[in-house]
Amino acid sequence: MNPPSKTHAIVVGGGTMGADVAVVLLRAQCRTTIVEPDASRHATIAARTDAGLAHLDCAENSRYASIVSSLDEADWASAGLVIECIPEQLDLKQKLFGRLVELSTPDTVLCSNSSSYPISDIAQGLPTRNRMLGLHFFMPAHIVPLVEVVLSADTEAGLGESLAAFMRRCGSVPVLVRKDVPGFLANRLQHALAREAYALIEQGIASPEDIDAAVRFGFGFRYLAAGPVLQRDHGGLDVHCAAARSMYPTLCNDAAPAAILAERADAGKTGMKAGEGFYTWTPESIAAERKRYDAMLRAGLELLAGELPKIQP
Questions:
Q1: What's the pLDDT score for residue 201?
Q2: pLDDT value, residue 38
Q3: Considering its fold, how many domains does the chain have in total?
Q4: In whole angstroms, what is the distance from residue 114 CA to residue 97 CA?
Q5: What pLDDT does 278 receive?
Q6: For the range 193-200, what are the long-range contacts, defined as Cβ-Cβ under 8 Å and sequence gap of 24 or more?
Q7: What mean pLDDT value characterizes the chain?
Q8: Do 29 and 122 sit in the same domain of this protein?
Q9: S-S: 45 plus which of 14, 31, 51, 214, CB 3.0-4.6 Å?
């Protein structure tokens, strides 16, 4: 792949994730076209990308951005990269990538930001599946450094490494997921932790508040400095192996979501957007929490600044 400043990227979908993914590209001076059918949202999208770039001290890079209302309006002849950020519905994604077979050039790298569907499923039966990959960002995409580059069995050899190098030049931290398993890498780790957390709540061992505190102010605090594998080397593999022998037989291995999760989801108690989940929310507490959360993420980003890839347009 060409470097970002020599690449034209098309982001399909101008929602929150699509706009933030555009900021990731724009900060590296990548010419970026956002495709959003709802023209009434274009001004909001432009304002969000402008604000994101301003927070990253590169407001001038907004000149590389454009927004169009349809796929047909984009300059496909020059597009080197496509990132799909449309709603999480498999049929919609398959229909879109079916259209990209007609629109894209043979050299265009086609990516999906899906967090739910394996790229293998989206690419099934398409002649472009050799150049299709998952490119999974985490909200907010322009602040959270990680991006997962997910390969299918059909992805062209070397394309994953090439895309990872491109994202590194954009200032992201790419990880290569070599097998297209459900949940990819980070979400599998998150769900393994969450499954045990829900089990501890159901068994009356700890409250949601205490579990959150244990993660944030205990081992999660250390994870900013070292991930779970490196941290084990710090602590000693003999100690952790002995602990594993003791604990593993008692860990939750349920194949279905915990009742306390499923019951809340079924009852519409889905968290902030519903006003209640494991916590109770008001408009005021939501605003305060989002402000606190954003500030903490930005502070963490500053702490990690010396270890993040340098942007190389």
A1: 97
A2: 97
A3: 3
A4: 13
A5: 97
A6: 195/252, 195/254, 195/258, 196/251, 196/252, 198/252, 198/257, 198/258, 198/260, 198/261, 199/252, 199/254, 199/258
A7: 97
A8: yes
A9: 14
Which CATH number belongs to the domain containing residue 172 in this structure?
Answer: 3.40.50.720
- Run of H or E residues at 209: helix 208-214
With CA atoms as reference, report the closest residue to 148 among 189, 186, 120, 101.
Answer: 186
CB proximity list for 118: less than 8 A, separation 6 or greater: 134, 150, 152, 180, 181, 182
Beta strand pairing call for 146-150 and 173-177: parallel
Provide, rounded to the nearest whole percent, the portion of the chain with pLDDT above 90.
Answer: 99
Confidence of residue 116 (pLDDT cuts 50, 70, 90): confident
Other Cβ atoms closer than 10 A to 93: 23
Instruction: List the CATH number of the domain containing 235.
Output: 1.10.1040.10
Q: What is the pLDDT of residue 177?
A: 97
pLDDT digits (tens, 9 = 90+) for 35-49: 999 999 999 999 999
Asked if 21 contacts 53 with a C-beta cutoff of 8 angstroms, the reply is no
In this prediction, residue 18 carries a pLDDT of: 98
Q: Confirm whether pTM is higher than 0.90.
A: yes
Q: Provide the b/e sequence for 129-156 (b: ≥16 CB within 10 Å).
A: bebbbbbbbbebbbbbbebbbbbbebbe
Residue 113 is part of which domain span?
4-177
Nearest to 170 by CA among 195, 201, 135: 135
DSSP β-ladder status, 132-137 and 146-150: antiparallel
